[in-house]
């Protein structure tokens, strides 16, 4: 399949067959992830494969998502300046600058670029994936379970596996809402496009085969603001992990 | 070309021919970017195309990179919860939670996932790209130039264009350094793999056709810690933009 066509067909896959991903394929996916760009080449991320069934259940409990207990390979994606700080200290350098906001942002971006490559590579091999932001519902617990040292931060989980069932494609915001020229555009400048989108998204939510409901983009935002897991502790945890401590 | 092969061939492209990207192709790349996953579907990012030559020179000056003044289409990638906050207010909701660390991280991740899709789509059409972290050398200036409102933050620039010349592929860290099982691994557990990597990277730096020099991964880290642009003001700017203000 053409690469753009493949990317345009992306949807979250939450249910997987029991067929495991073999180690060779997993390794190939990690290699491809690593080929993404990286800020000043610090490659400031790590992937942690969860293969221990007890650990898997503990992380699934953090996510509160029943499907995380089921099939699929579970990765936890980590922003990681700890490796670079350790290597800095080994050559007698003060790693302090790696804890600044700039390097924290870069590590989040490095990790995320690599993960998107991994997702694309997986989908090109017929696998499906779902991001688990819910791995941060109890970030302190994940840090403890995975022995994550200072200057690391878990960002999200990723489940990868052979799809069982298929979801409909979810319509994205109109280009007018996310692509501007020479400066920022306020939503008031593209209200017509947004109104159309509300209708398109409403039709999607009503017609989809799983969890059909009455909703639109307003509802998506309302959901975010009334989340059961607002994760207000994350800034404190970032500080505890040594980040953003200028 | 096979998608994994394409991703594994990625390298930064800093010099472009004068051939412009037509608007239809650019629009196609943005659409594909938008198909990336997004945290709780908030799609919390925006792309800003820089087509005004004066603005382009002002941003090039921030980056201090002469090639930014030359060919290629320039995008600034923005973490954006402002759109969602505005839509929240329109339905009478308090958008405060969108300013928390959790939603800031999600917006950085949304923006970065979308950008990696854009890069992959571009490369599949024979285009090259380079990330410009240097757009944050003076983030306050970029915010002013692009009229970026509260709850937005520029993350990086991206240059896209038809390649003029080609770079060698840069060797990545060994998998042992970035992929662990069931818990974090300290660098002391994979020193042999790191030593090999230092040699591999040294050979790459010595043999490459542009800017060949004596360097290895220790040198990469040393460079990060002695940067001329440590960007220590970024945390303050993030607060000013309304983020991380729990």
UniProtKB/TrEMBL annotation, chains A, B:
Species lineage: Bacteria, Bacillati, Bacillota, Bacilli, Lactobacillales
Q: Where is the Nitroreductase domain?
A: 9-162
State the similarity comment. Answer: Belongs to the flavin oxidoreductase frp family.
UniProt organism field: Loigolactobacillus zhaoyuanensis
Q: What is this protein called in UniProt?
A: Nitroreductase family protein
> What does the UniProt keyword field contain?
Flavoprotein, FMN, NADP, Oxidoreductase
One Pfam family this sequence matches: Nitroreductase
């Amino acid at each position: 399949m053409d690469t753009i066509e493949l990317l345009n067909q992306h949807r979250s896959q939450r249910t997987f067959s029991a067929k495991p991903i073999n180690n060779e394929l997993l390794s190939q996916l990690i290699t491809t992830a690593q080929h993404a760009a990286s800020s000043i080449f610090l490659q400031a991320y790590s992937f942690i494969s969860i293969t221990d069934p007890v650990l898997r259940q503990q992380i699934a409990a953090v996510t509160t998502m029943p499907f995380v207990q089921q099939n699929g390979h579970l990765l936890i994606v980590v922003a990681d300046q700890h490796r670079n700080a350790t290597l800095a200290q080994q050559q007698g350098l003060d790693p302090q600058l790696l804890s600044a906001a700039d390097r924290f942002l870069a590590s989040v971006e490095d990790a995320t670029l690599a993960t998107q490559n991994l997702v694309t590579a997986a989908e090109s091999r017929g696998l499906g994936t779902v991001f688990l932001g819910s791995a941060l519902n109890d970030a302190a617990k994940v840090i403890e379970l995975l022995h994550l040292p200072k200057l690391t931060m878990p960002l999200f989980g990723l489940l990868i596996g052979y799809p069982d069932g298929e979801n409909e494609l979810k319509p994205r915001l109109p280009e007018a809402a996310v692509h501007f020229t020479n400066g920022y555009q306020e939503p008031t400048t593209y209200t017509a496009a947004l109104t159309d989108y509300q209708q398109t998204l409403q039709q999607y939510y009503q017609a989809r085969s799983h969890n059909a409901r009455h909703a639109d983009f307003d509802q998506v935002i309302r959901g975010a603001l009334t989340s059961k897991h607002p994760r207000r502790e994350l800034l404190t945890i970032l500080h505890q992990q040594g980040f953003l401590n200028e």
